[in-house]
Amino acid sequence: MPSNTIRIRAQVNSGTTEVKSLIKHPMETGLRKNKAGKTIPAHFIEQVTAELNGTQVMLANWSIGISKNPFLSFKVKGGKAGDTLKLSWADNKGETDSIETKLS
Amino acid sequence: MNNTRRVFLKGTLTASALGVAAGAGLLTPRSVLAATSSWPKGAFQSTDFKEAMKQIDGSDSAESGHVTLRAPDIAENGAVVPVTMSSDLDNVVSLTLFAKGNPYPLNSSYTFSNGGLPYASSRIKLSKTMEVMAVARTADGKLYSASKQVKVTIGGCGG
Q1: CB-facing half-sphere around the CA of B2: CA atoms within 13 A
Q2: Nearest-CA distance B81 → chain A (Å)
Q3: Which of A4, A48, B97, B153 could anchor a disulfide with B107, C-beta 3.0 to 4.6 Å?
Q4: Does A33 touch chain B (CB under 8 A)?
């Protein structure tokens, strides 16, 4: 399983939590061919979920149309410094990774 | 760039049992494509924009307004186009992004709950110059949208 694929920052600013994250992933479309003319199999993140203190606040369904090494930013109402935000992803090959961070 | 991808693929394929199973033909490509059970495969595999929108949002018509879509007028590199969508309504349950001219128009769909605000920012691939559209769905099933034409000088999907 991949590990350390996610970089994340979550900050509270006047009652709103803003999360910014970067995920290391090839996001291969399955439409490209290699130099030998063989199709490169699709390999992309299907879902990203975010939980604030264990409660789901955002679910993203992604396609091959998201860029390689995806960037994702989203916002949550509420949250305070020290709260726990968990971000997880799962791809079409069954690989997953997740990270937990404290709000600042 | 290609070299690192080759190394990455080699590593993950040999390491993962799923990769081995798929290689041996134990799993059909179809089942490999749906590793997450709630992923709306049908909508994502639709090549028709209206059909994809019907499947994901229940209708292919949306009122314009209440949605803000930020994207560049001209994207020099179609492989990395920053797009931000948001809504000023307080009962939005999902924001969905369509890249109308891509081989598979449904790009991404975000569902919000328990305080998650209708805002999502990411980077997407555009295969050519096209219109992108953001659709917000409210708790009572109403659809609102915003569209923007993005000119692409180098496409992002070809090999």
Answers
A1: 6
A2: 8
A3: B97
A4: yes
